[in-house]
Design a protein that fits this description.
The chain is α/β, with parallel strands linked by helices. It has two domains: about 70 residues, Ribosomal Protein L15, Chain: K, domain 2; about 240 residues, Up-down Bundle (Four Helix Bundle (Hemerythrin (Met), subunit A)), CATH 1.20.120. The protein is built from ten helices and twelve strands. Helix 4 packs antiparallel against helix 5 and helix 6 packs across helix 7. It is globular.
């Protein structure tokens, strides 16, 4: 169940041109070579704004199963390259059959939410240990997470499970400002499409990165990222990728955001306002976040189902395989990732 964690190449320079040169990727800017990387060192390409890529390089990436993801210049997801469908038709058939079974759908939705709530509780408890002055604020939120985990053991139906998740998320974001130690960053609640303050802009950007990794992991094991159980199905929406990333939101994405802000790696001058009240990371800010995100993926953690430590970047692939085993009925239950 291992997969080498390869580097992701992030390209933000407007007008950059990527092309294939034998078995290497060449990056040119204004006709001059700026980078030369062996393809076998790269697991994916993430391109922001006006970045060009040659047809031959695209064909090679599709052939190799290498991810190519396009974002707007401000970091909003636009699309991704999908090569030949991997996996076998029997696994995808099992995925659809589970969606048609209300009990299995409820089980999966509840387990995804349970993983999210458990890892949110972990983040809050860690913050409270680091700063005992936050006990009065954070302990009630932790108690809510404990209540939600208990309620998720036997929810009456999918609507009830979604309601539990909504209550837990609302309480969590109410206390989220307590976790921010940089006083010039304020947070008055979650907003998106578009984000209207630097904290929300940072959260949305990192969520997009994690979602992309989850989507690639699901496709890598042969599952359809659009057929989910917790998130409702909509054309073009990767519902299963959104389901899977719930386990990683607080523990991976939110903790990275908090670390970047609290350590002053990201500052207010890393953001820029846009028409209509939107706020986005500028190129310098995105560079800081992408570097930190790549480093975070290389850090290792213990997984409860396995003895050995593994890179954080491998976790979506591990969970995608656990999910596939449940769908094939090799496991009696789906076990979400739980931070230690």
């Amino acid at each position: 169940m291992t997969r080498q964690i390869l580097n992701t190449l992030f390209v933000q320079t407007q007008g950059a041109y990527l092309r294939l040169e034998h078995d290497t990727l060449r990056v040119e800017i204004d006709g001059e070579k700026r980078l030369h990387v062996p393809l076998h060192h790269l697991g994916g390409l993430m391109l922001f704004g006006n970045v060009l890529i040659s047809p031959y390089l695209l064909h090679r990436c599709a052939q190799d199963g290498r991810d190519v993801v396009w974002f707007s210049r401000s970091g909003r997801f636009q699309g991704r390259l999908a090569g030949p469908v991997s996996g076998n038709v029997l696994l995808r058939r099992a995925q659809h059959k589970a969606l048609d079974d209300p009990q299995r759908t409820l089980h999966l939705a509840s387990r995804f939410i349970h993983g999210k709530v458990r890892n949110t509780q972990h983040v809050l408890q860690r913050a409270m240990r680091d700063d005992r002055a936050t006990v009065e604020t954070l302990q009630p939120a932790i108690d809510t997470m404990k209540w939600a985990r208990k309620a998720l053991q036997a929810p009456a139906d999918l609507d009830v499970a979604r309601g539990i998740e909504g209550q837990a998320a609302a309480v969590y974001f109410q206390v989220f400002p307590t976790l921010l130690r940089a006083k010039d960053f304020t947070f008055d609640g979650r907003n998106k499409r578009p984000p209207r303050d630097p904290v929300n802009a940072l959260l949305s950007f990192v969520y997009t990165l994690v979602r992309g990794d989850c989507e690639a992991a699901l496709e890598g094991v042969g599952l359809d990222p659009q057929v989910g159980y917790f998130h409702t199905l909509r054309p073009g929406r990767p519902a299963l990728a959104l389901d899977l990333m719930e386990e990683f939101r607080a523990w991976w994405a939110d903790r990275l955001v908090l670390s970047l802000i609290n350590r002053r790696q990201v500052r207010l001058d890393h953001f820029e306002p846009r028409p209509g009240g939107a706020v986005y990371l500028n190129e310098t800010g995105r560079r800081e976040v992408l570097t930190a995100y790549q480093k975070r993926k290389q850090e290792t953690v213990k997984h409860r189902l396995f003895k050995e430590s593994m890179p954080i970047g491998l976790l979506p692939y591990i969970q995608a395989r656990v999910l596939a085993r449940y769908l094939r009925q090799d496991l009696d239950a789906y076990h979400p990732f739980q931070a230690r």
